Structure formats: C-alpha cells, structure tokens
Amino acid sequence: MQLRLADADGGPMNKRLYHGIREAILEGSIAADSRLPASRDLAAELGIARNTVVHVYGQLLAEGYTRSLQGNGTFVNASQPDSYLASGRQSRRAPVPQPRPALSARGAAIVDGVSASPYQWGAFMPGVPDLTEFPHKKFGRIFSALWRNPAPDLLTYAYGGGLPALREALAQHLALTRSIDCDPDQILITEGSHQAIDLATRILGEAGETAWVEDPGYWGARTVLQANGLHTVHLPVDEEGMRLPDADAAPGMAPPRFIFVTPSHQYPLGPVMSLARRRQLLAVARRHGSWIIEDDYDSEFRFSGRPIASLLGLEPDAPVIYMGTFSKTLYPGLRVGYLVLPKPLTAAFQAAHAELYREGHLMTHAALATFIAEGHYAAHIRRMRMLYARRRAMLVNLIERRLGPDWLHRDASLAGLHLVLTLPSHMDDLRVVEVARRKGVLTRALSRYYVGAEGRRPGLLLGYACVPEHDIARKFEVLLESLAEVARMTPAAPAVAAQPA
Which of 172, 186, 208, 151 lies closest to 367, judged by CA? Predict the structure, then answer.
C-alpha cells in the first residue's frame, strides 16, 4: 500500500499515518471494500511501532472509514462519513452557491422584517439594565444551597404554570407594588414576554382577527401577533398614551380581539397613560369583548411620584391579561416572565403552556422565589432606581447643555431605562445608528418602531441604565461626533451645532 506520508501534515507519526490512510481512502487510491494490510505487516513496511498502526486503525474504525471483520481483518467502507458531514474533505472545496430554501409566507415575513439586534450590551443600548450591579453573590448562594441537595421534582418537567413558591412570592410582590389582588394560581410563569404574547394569542385568538397596537410600539409584540395570523391596526400615541379611535369616525373598523398596550411607560416614547385614557380603554374592551394585554414595561423604575395603578388593578373583573418580566429588573438572560390571568382562564392556559412549551427551569424558579421572599428583590429595585435616576439626570443634562432642550422628546417621562433623542427631520436615524456603532456606541433608531406615517420623525433611543456614570459623557461625545458626521453626509442639511463642553 503506497502512502504519501511525506505530504501528510507534520507532527507525530500516528497523526501522519492517519491522514495518509484517510486521504488514500477518500481519493480512491484504496478502493472501497479493500482489505488494509495487517497491522504487523504495515508496521514492518513503514519501520514504525505496531502500536502506532493499531491506534490509527482504531481511530479510522471509530470514525466510520473502515469496518472490522473478526478473524478476517480491516476493510474500507463503501460509504464514507465525509459524505454526510460538512467538515473534512468537502470543506476544502470552493463552496457551491445554494438557492435560498423556500420559506412559508409567515416565515419570510418574520425573517425579512427582523428587528432583533446582535448587539445587546454597551452605551447607549436601550432596554438593558446594569448587569454588573446584579447581586450575583447573593443569588449564587441561593442557587448553591439548592444544588447541594436538589429535590428530584425540581429537576424534571413542570406542569401548572411554574413553581408554586415563585407564584406565591410574585402574588405578594404585585399586591404591594402594583395594587394587583390575585391568587398565586392566577400567575403563570413564562420564558419572557414573547412567549407570553404567543400563548395568549394562540389560546384566545383566531387567524384574521384584529389586534390594536401602539404606533410607535414594541416590534417584538407586533411580530408575534402577526406571526399568529392576527391583523394589526396601528394606533398613534400622544402624551396620554394610545389614542383610541372614535367609533363614529371609523365605522368600518373591525372590533379588536386584542389591545396591546404599555400603559405604565409607553415603549418607546415614554408617556404614562392617563387615568382617563385607562378608563376609556377598559370601556372599549368591555364593549367589544376584547382582551387587553397589559405589558407593564419598566413600571418598577419610576423616579418621581407614585405610579398609577395597573389596568388589571383598576377595576374588578377587568378584561386584562397582565404581563411582566424580570428582564429589566434583574437580567435579560434569566428568561423569566409571567402572566396574571383572570381566574376563568387559568386552567386552560396552564394546560396549553405545558403542551406547547414543555415547561421546566424549576431550579431557577426556586432560587428566584427565595430571592424575592428574603427581600433581596425589593432591595435591588430600590438601589437600582436611585442609580438609574442619577444616570438619567446626567444624560438629560448633557443633551440640554450640548444640543438644547428641544432635542429631548416632549413625552420623556421620569421613568424607564432610556430617553428619546429627537433628530432634525432631514436626518437619517438608521445611518446615525450605523455610524455610531462603528465608533463603539450602540443605540436604536426611533423610525424602526413606526408603521404608519402619523407623527413619525427620526430619533434615537438612548439607554442609560447600562452605562457607568464615569463613561456617560465620553460616550455622548462619540454620539455627537456621529451626528455631525451624518449631518455632513446629508445633502443641503444644516450642521449639528453642539455647544462647547
């Protein structure tokens, strides 16, 4: 058997011999079903130790290049593993262009309209808390204690909407902070808001029905609603929140099956829905038999005054499904959210959730329940509220001093984890985002959150929560440079005149 050991990769003899035999098999120099020399004979021919040959034969056998017939020797397989793998010999050839696989209409719409960003941490990424300030040691000690002697029922599948201890702790927390009077059984633990919206719309909606959503509004909610076959009607937002249509002015509008709102801190513009608008919204939902999905976005981070009660807690038997997550208060990678359901829906939602998503993560639920029950969660929120208030004040001061107060969006509220910086009407906010990203600053374009034309204007969402105080001014200077660069690239546009620092 002729082997090109000299051409094989350098290194130990067993590696060179392996590559030499493998290449000979793949090239056809050693034909399929051929018998390889006995290990003793090949070792003598090559002048190497027999154990080296035995080791290489064993590796080729384990990888599927050969087969061993007891008493008859080692034979080359007709079908080689490289024909099934992307690695190996085929990876050395020039790739052959492949046509794009045919997607469903729904799949193509999701992929073509994707808004999720591959960049999730850094100044001024909105919607991200300061992950460095999370009490990792306290949470780690709770987890470690659970893992020292884990209960078997915490390591299997879950059923019933999440660990009862977590639902009990959440019920007490919501009663104190959001005026929500609910039983623990009304709470269903989800893996974030997307899964919560998906479950609610699958169980309560039919394809072709209508959902009212805010415009501008959260792209993730819009994507999930549309993926489940719902027709979304985009209603403009003013200083009181979602502006509801006048029934007389829109007689042909289909009644909504769902109304998706962020009343505590509208995302992305920031206004808090007025009490009058909340009562109007509840009345509309009762009249049409609609379900309100209340995303209580950023309700924990309000820096002035007392928050208005949630929609769910405003009236008895309100047609509201309340939704919250720990993504902003703790960290997004935790992937724990929850729904508060009207009692008649709880059994159906629990069964559907287990059937669709095969729930688990009970060890995480147990750790989080202890974290809340021992008071660490409330203490963490209080501390972060003070920290974020300072950072928000610093960023507001920079904007007003360097650009002017008119650059702050009129609906900027004393709440949340980001501000909206309005841009001149001629400026392309998508271009600003890209230029800033190349300079090491992250932000999101306000225009991406609009669907309709009413009220649309360019802007930037500036998250301040994940930016240390000592870095805010420096990163803001980089943002100013990006604005000036885009202004110079825009024909007939006035320059961005930043005031001296």
Answer: 151
Topology annotation, domain 134-375: Aspartate Aminotransferase; domain 2 (3.40.640)
Residue length of the chain: 501
Question: Residue 210 CA to chain centroid, in angstroms?
Answer: 25
- Evaluated on CA atoms 19, 21, 25, 27, the torsion sign reads positive
The top-level CATH class assigned to 5-92 is mainly alpha
CA distance 197 to 195: 6
CB 12 within 8 A of CB 28: no
Cα 42–Cα 46–Cα 49 angle in degrees, nearest 5? 75
Contact present, 188 and 349 (Cβ < 8 Å):
yes
DSSP-derived 3-state class of residue 237: strand
State the average pLDDT over residues 463-468: 93
Asked if the 379-489 domain carries CATH number 2.60.450.10, the reply is no
Stronger pLDDT, 38 or 213, i.e. the higher one: 213
pLDDT at 2: 61
Residue with tokens 């660069």: 485
Q: Which residues contact 375 (CB under 8 A, 6 or more apart)?
A: none
Report the C-alpha gap between 435 and 419 in whole angstroms.
19
Least confident stretch, 75-84, 357-366, 410-419: 75-84
Identity at 202, one-letter amino acid code: R
Q: DSSP 3-state assignment of 340?
A: strand
Q: Which residues pair with 259 in a beta bridge?
A: 212, 292
Q: Where are the beta strands (DSSP E) in 77-227?
A: 187-190, 210-215
pLDDT digit string (tens) for 332-344? 999 999 999 999 9
Q: What secondary structure letter does DSSP report for 338?
A: E
Residue 109 in tokens: 């719409």
Sign of the torsion angle spanned by Cα atoms 412, 415, 416, 418: positive
Contact residues for 200 (Cβ-Cβ < 8 A; gap 6+): 258, 291, 293, 321, 339, 349
